[in-house]
Structures are given as structure tokens and as C-alpha cells.
TrEMBL record:
Pfam families xref list: Lipase_GDSL_2
Keywords: Signal
The protein's name in its UniProt record: Lysophospholipase L1
N-terminal signal peptide: 1-18
Single GO MF descriptor: hydrolase activity, acting on ester bonds
Location of the SGNH hydrolase-type esterase domain: 57-205
Gene3D superfamilies associated with the record: SGNH hydrolase (3.40.50.1110)
């Protein structure tokens, strides 16, 4: 009888695990497989990572051709997800610089700015434990048409990120929020149809902001 109960419990756990896989595992494995074939460990590396605004920056390597750029953005991610995959998406590349974009989806998921900052701080600490000389650039949460009603929360998060950068050695804050505005409203012509993700005009703004940090 005990054996039957144990077997049933094992079956239940197995089914539960099958229905609840580790989030983003497949996408992270695909990124690992991609860079296993093209990554040159002998070159200095810059990692761009975070949620879909990074993942969809298709030409980021071409934008910075004089550097080896690794794009490990994974769509829909939050700061806690990046913290979970910190080795796979950041540390394994031994980067000299890390450009980090998280917080956008966290706010949309109703997480508080203070809790988000704690996770971002954990990521920074993990990077610096691995190599204290690695430069981390926090990319401000961007404004968007789709999430404009949450602008107050995004602005609070950005203020906290700017302060975290000011208070932390080897960390900088890159403000993409203000350049994406037209007066008091978000620019309308820098997004694709979903009103959330950027088109080429939007990424040109990001390039103009981030280029000084890269070089």
C-alpha cells in the first residue's frame, strides 16, 4: 500500500513538473547554442541583455562593429528571470561591459519599483562578484504607447535606477526615457504596430544614447 501511494505521489509530481517547465529554459538554451558557435572567448565582450526590447534589437552587433557584442535578450523576462539565468546569459561570456534592460515587464506585472530595484541590485552584485571591473549600464525603462498609463510608475523606477547607479561603483544609468518623448507625450512614430516594441527609429534613439557608454 505504501509503495502504491509513493508511486502515485511521484506520478503527480512528474505531471506537475511537465506542466510547469522552468520559464524561458528553451529560449535560453537556444541562445547558448547560438553563441557556442560564434562567440570568440579571446575577444573582449559586451553583453546586452534583458527583455524583448533587447531581444528585438536585431542589428546591435552591426551598430557596434568594432566590438564583440552578445545579445542575450529574452522576451517577456523580468529582473527575477535574468537573476535566475545570470550565469547562462551574462557571466559565461566574461564581459567587460553589461547593458541591462529590465523593469519594463516588472512594472506591467504590478511589481513595486523597490522590489524591482532589489532584484537589479542582486544582478549587479552577481556580476561584480564574478569580476569587480565589469562595467554595468542600467538602461532606463522606456516609455511606450501601449503602457503609457503606467508612466508614473516607470518614472519612479527610473529615478531609483539612477540613484542606484550613482551609489554603486562601476554602474552607470542611461536615460532613454526623455529622448523618446515629444514634449509631455511619447513619440508615436518610433514603435511597431503593437505600440510597445520599437522600430528602426526607436532603436536609433537608443543607439544615440548608448553609443557613448559603449565606446
Amino acid at each position: 500500500m505504501k509503495f502504491i501511494v509513493f508511486t502515485v505521489l511521484c506520478l503527480i509530481v512528474s505531471i506537475a513538473n511537465a506542466q510547469d517547465p522552468v520559464p524561458f529554459k528553451g529560449e535560453v538554451e537556444d541562445l547558448q547554442n547560438k553563441y557556442d558557435t560564434v562567440f570568440d572567448a579571446s575577444q573582449e565582450t559586451i553583453v546586452f541583455t534583458g527583455s524583448s526590447s533587447i531581444r528585438m534589437w536585431r542589428d546591435v552587433q552591426e551598430r557596434f562593429p568594432e566590438h564583440q557584442v552578445v545579445n542575450t535578450g529574452f522576451g517577456g523576462s523580468q529582473a527575477s528571470d535574468l537573476s535566475f539565468y545570470i550565469y547562462d546569459l551574462i557571466l559565461r561570456f566574461h564581459p567587460k561591459k553589461v547593458f541591462l534592460y529590465e523593469g519594463d515587464n516588472d512594472i506591467f506585472a504590478k511589481k513595486k519599483p523597490t522590489a524591482i530595484i532589489e532584484k537589479i541590485q542582486n544582478i549587479i552584485e552577481g556580476i561584480h562578484r564574478n569580476d569587480s571591473t565589469t562595467r554595468v549600464v542600467l538602461i532606463a525603462a522606456k516609455p511606450s504607447i501601449a503602457r503609457w498609463k503606467l508612466k508614473g510608475k516607470y518614472k519612479r523606477l527610473n529615478r531609483k535606477m539612477a540613484k542606484l547607479a550613482d551609489d554603486t561603483p562601476s554602474v552607470a544609468y542611461a536615460d532613454v526615457w526623455d529622448p523618446m518623448l515629444d514634449g509631455n507625450k511619447v513619440k508615436q512614430d518610433i514603435f511597431i504596430e503593437d505600440g510597445l516594441h520599437m522600430n528602426a527609429k526607436g532603436y536609433q534613439i537608443w543607439y544615440d544614447v548608448l553609443e557613448p557608454f559603449v565606446n
